[in-house]
Amino acid sequence: MRGIVFSGDCTLELLTVPDPTPGPGEVVLEIKASGMCGSDLHVYRRPRDASTAGVIAGHEPCGVVVAVGPGVTAPFARIGARVMVHHYRGCACCEDCRSGWPQMCRSVPVTVYGSDAHGAHAPYMKVAADTLVPLDERLSFSAGAAISCGTGTAWGAFERMGLTGRDTVAIFGQGPVGLSATLLAKAQGAHVIALDIDEGRRAAAKAFGADSVLDPRDGNAADAIHELTGGRGASMALETAGAAAAGDDALNCVRSWGTVCLVGIGAEIRLSVAKMLRRQLRILPSWTMSIMAQKACADFAVERNLDLDALFTDRWRLDQAAQAYEKFNRQSSGKGVILM
Questions:
Q1: Cα–chain-centroid distance for residue 198?
Q2: How confident is the model at residue 50, as a pLDDT?
Q3: What are the two backbone dihedrals, phi and then psi, of residue 205, each rounded to the nearest 5 degrees?
């Protein structure tokens, strides 16, 4: 089979590798949809590095089980099952792994599918059976791919924050994670202020139900949010842009006792402890989601009949990968997905 490999310096290639065969405790999926995640761009843009050569990208897998290795007994790992993948693999035995957080495993080096082991930008993918998450028939494969990282990351952040319908949440960045957050927050009854520097993404946020949209370049974003909230500030802020300015604005836009959650990779933020302390802020980082949260996000999407497919503005074939990532790299569109 052929799979997409990031070669560095904003280039990629289609690499030919043998079709995967499952070992003990493993399954092989026929990939139906493989989402394009903003974190892919960090690998796509970095200088050429021979140490990453030969690893198929794609960490938002969704597909159908087509082969099962010895020792696999989970009912949702049967041949023909529709599944998502929680894209981390730890030791499966430690406290973190058993609590659904294999990415936090300290017993063995964590495997990240799409970085340390072949990912989903290929027709087939081999994974550990205990990373599978069932996909309800009412959700498309594309929706499952979104939940497998981007949308699931937004859900995981809101779980940490404790978002409720009483909150006003400012969401910085309306890329795939931020737009997912806007959709999920509105479905939970929150008042949403969405911010992005791109006009198209602001329009998408409005279409997804944002109560207000702001361009941070129009002035002081924190001041604008205070004005929109009668001088109080937002009760919560979620930073998904990975930009230092967005992080600073998130910290400054919330009211006393507010909560700020930082998700975007790449930002470096300086904090004044005295300034934060005297406002009694709660500041949280959030890294993707647990296996249980991935399932809970999918259940919520079904219960609320959320149109997760509307997140996708671009659908590509595998042989269009170069064009797909060239467009995605401009960060002026929505989410892309590779369909097999």
A1: 19
A2: 54
A3: -60, -40
Same domain, residue pair 226 and 209: yes
Per-residue model confidence as pLDDT tens digits over 148-176: 999 999 999 999 999 999 999 999 999 99
Domain count, the chain: 2
CB 241 within 8 A of CB 214: no
Determine how β-strand 82-85 pairs with β-strand 132-134.
antiparallel
Using 50, 70 and 90 to split pLDDT, how confident is the model at 276?
A: confident
The last residue of a domain, from among 285, 304, 324: 285
- Which structure tokens are listed for 147? 């939940």
- According to DSSP, the β-strands at 191-195 and 26-35 are unpaired
Q: CB of 200 within 8 A of CB of 331?
A: no
Question: At 177, is the secondary structure helix, strand, or coil?
Answer: helix
My answer on whether 243 and 299 are in the same domain is: no
**pTM for this prediction:** 0.95
CB-CB neighbours of 318 under 10 Å: 19
